[in-house]
């Protein structure tokens, strides 16, 4: 797979996902403002990927600062952190990664600014490397839940593209496939931005893993026909009680799965678990612009001009609908998470 995001020649290089699958193009960000815009415009998206990208954005912004006093430098870096933190509100990985960068900064108080700049780049690279390693562990644990011959329904893209590599939900699919299990992914297209159709189908086809694209409104009918054995999705934030925020439409899939007696799994690293948020009711849900719904990619209109629109980017699936949460540390019931991940 091509890297989603990387530090290259003193710049942050982002695979521009808004152009996939037609074009594989990269955006070379020379300043942190461009990184922030890329996150807002979904050129890079997916909870772990935006965390890694924001961390690299902080490191990039720090490189351009000219002051030599620690206090002035740290104040400016904190400003860069605030700018990047204001890009998208729901995925907690963004705030988690920025917090790690701030902790690095504070830990280096008194060191020369030139050294801190280098160490910030190293920390962002560590966040990236750890993300891939966690996804492989998620894959290893999750693959034990998948049997030969199963059809797995997924929603949005929780794959290599949504992370630094390998993927969370699709990491589980990859691991099961690597073990020789003959499986098939049923990919919800995921209106309105079509991450399922454009990204999940693209990345699985790249790896020759069987995938069938379906429209979002087919899931129930396929479940009733016995064509879905398992549902597997990623997460943008998991609250302390095990409620999960993920792409809008996830809740509907979970309710359908429960009605049909089909297991519904969520795959996510610890950077997605937010024990400071007691339940899904407190998770901030991003509202995006109406044009994403009223037209296809801002060009082809699909609704009358002036139509009133709702466009929440995420929904919350209550813990009671979730069979288990697959993490890099193992597979847990939603109710076990708080105990297991308390710091
Ligand atoms: O709006 P997006 O494309 O950033 O939404 C992404 C999702 O909802 C993913 O399912 C989630 O971030 C998990 S990614 C491993």
| Radius of gyration, CA atoms, in whole angstroms | 20 Å
The average pLDDT is: 97
Attached small molecules: 5-S-methyl-1-O-phosphono-5-thio-D-ribulose
The count of DSSP E runs of length 2 or more, i.e. the number of strands, is: 16
Q: Residue share in helices?
A: 25-40%
Q: How is the CATH topology of the largest domain named?
A: Rossmann fold
User: What's the CATH class label of the largest domain?
Assistant: Alpha Beta
The strand line-up of the biggest sheet is: 6-5-4-7-10-15-16
How much of the residues is beta strand, in percent?
15-25%
CATH architecture assignment name of the largest domain: 3-Layer(aba) Sandwich
Measured between the Cα atoms of the first and last residue, the distance is: 34 Å
* Uncertain stretches of 5 or more adjacent residues: none
